[in-house]
Amino acid sequence: MKKLMLPFFLCLFCTLATLGQNNVEITLSNGKTVEGVTKTLFTVDDGDVIIVKDAKSGEKSEYKSTDIKRVKYYDSKSKEWQTFVPVMAQRMLPTVWNKNPKPYKTPVFLTPLYEGKNVSAYLHQISTITNTKNKQIIGTNYVFYFKVHKEDVAKAFWMGNSIGAKLMLKIVFKPYPIMKEAVSNLNTKEFDKDPVSIIKTFDELLK
């Protein structure tokens, strides 16, 4: 998929935690395909399990991300199939104090946004907690990831509603000197519209 479809993805993410009976199709690592329905696709953040009621047998089974190659979920409102893939990914965005955050213990489900020759880009929903004077608000946000095909872990490079794109990207791409000029010349307004654009540039420069 080489076209970014953020409005659809973000709308979908808003409803993942409260799904009803929804059709899913799971392709396992051994090539077997399971078709059925699920009440909850998977939890946010470190969700690595999906429970499916088999369409043929009616039996419920639990499938771990380590045994899954791909999950296809049918969104009844948009009439679209959405794909999720299990990927080893960093738990958080890098910072000046932690430039290479540790990954989740197991692969988590990410939405593929871009598949290049050298780099892929993904989107991941995360949970958020906002403390106010009178209450605590629990919500969701999303993090963009890229994965160099020769590397084992996807790296977080941007979070929805964040600020300071250039500073963040300088930290993220410091291990890749070929990106220094691209980050320095970044048009932040264009980046806000399409964060994956920087990964497309990275893909073109990486050999």
Structure description:
This protein has 207 residues and is α+β, with helices and mostly antiparallel strands. The protein has five helices and ten strands, in the order H-E-E-E-E-E-E-E-E-E-E-H-H-H-H. The protein has helices spanning 6-13, 165-172, 180-184, 188-193, 197-205; strands at 22-28, 33-38, 49-54, 60-64, 68-75, 80-87, 108-115, 119-131, 136-148, 155-159. It has a ten-stranded antiparallel β-sheet. Strand 3 (49-54) and strand 4 form a beta hairpin.
Blueprint (SSEs and pairs):
Elements: H1 6-13, E1 22-28, E2 33-38, E3 49-54, E4 60-64, E5 68-75, E6 80-87, E7 108-115, E8 119-131, E9 136-148, E10 155-159, H2 165-172, H3 180-184, H4 188-193, H5 197-205
Antiparallel strand pairs: 1-2, 1-5, 2-3, 3-4, 5-6, 6-7, 7-8, 8-9, 9-10
Average pLDDT score: 85
By DSSP, the count of extended strands is: 10
Secondary-structure class:
alpha+beta
How much of the polypeptide forms β-strand, as a percent range? 35-45%
Euclidean distance between termini CA atoms: 21 Å
Stretches where pLDDT is under 50 for at least 5 consecutive residues are 1-19
| Count, helices | 5
Query: What's the overall geometry?
Result: globular
Cross-sheet strand order for the largest sheet: 4-3-2-1-5-6-7-8-9-10
C-alpha Rg, in Å? 18 Å
Helix content: 10-25%
Elements, N to C (H/E): HEEEEEEEEEEHHHH
What is the makeup of the main sheet? 10 strands, antiparallel
